[in-house]
Amino acid sequence: MREIDPKLLGNVFYSRLFLEAPELRSLFKPDMEPQYKKLLDMLSYVVVRLDRLDTVLDDVGALAERHTGYGVKPEHYELVGRALLWTLQTGLDRDWNPEVAEAWTAFYTAVATEMIQRGYPSEVRVGS
User: Fold this and answer.
1) 27 and 75 Cβ atoms separated by less than 8 Å
2) Of 6, 54, 96, 117, which sits with the fewest C-beta atoms within 10 Å of its C-beta?
3) Region 6-119: CATH code
4) Cα distances (angstroms) measured from residue 11 to each of 32, 39, 84
C-alpha cells in the first residue's frame, strides 16, 4: 500500500469514516490532505515494525494522549477500526483473505486497546 497515493487512501478511509460517523468530521481541520499523509505514514510505520509490537504500542500510546486532547472518545476507536479494515480490504482486494483479516483485526484491537488505556486509563478494553 506504500505505492498508493496518500490522498487517495486517505480520501477513501476518511470518506468511509465520515459516512458512518459524520459527527467525527468536526474533529478534523477543513484541509484533510495533511491528515491523509499522517494516516499512510502511520500505516507504513506499524507494518514495518510488526515484529516489534511493544515499540508500536508505546508509540501509539503517546499518540493516544494527544488524541484525547483533540476530543477523541473511546467509542470512536471502534468506528475508526471498522473504516480502516474496510479500507484495507478494499485496497488489498485479492490479497485480502481470512488470515490477513484476522491479523489486521487482532493488530487494530491491540492498538486501539492500548490507545484507550493510555488516553482514558479508567475505560474498558475494546471488544470487552
Assistant:
1) no
2) 54
3) 1.10.490.10
4) 8, 10, 12
For residue 127, give the 3-state DSSP assignment.
coil
- DSSP secondary structure, 10-22, as one string: HHHHHHHHHHH-G
How many residues belong to the chain?
Answer: 128
First to last CA, the chain: 31
For the chain, what are the domain ranges?
6-119
Name the pTM for this structure.
0.86
SS3 (DSSP) at 54: helix
Let me know: does 120 contact 126? Beta carbons within 8 Å: no
Question: Which among 66, 77, 57, 68 has a CA at the least distance from the CA of 128?
Answer: 77
The amino acid that residue 104 corresponds to is W
Maximum distance among all Cα pairs of the chain, rounded to whole angstroms = 40
Residue 115 to residue 120: CA distance in whole angstroms: 8
pLDDT in tens, 13-69: 999 999 999 999 999 999 999 999 889 888 888 888 888 888 888 888 888 888 888
The letter for the amino acid at 91 is: G
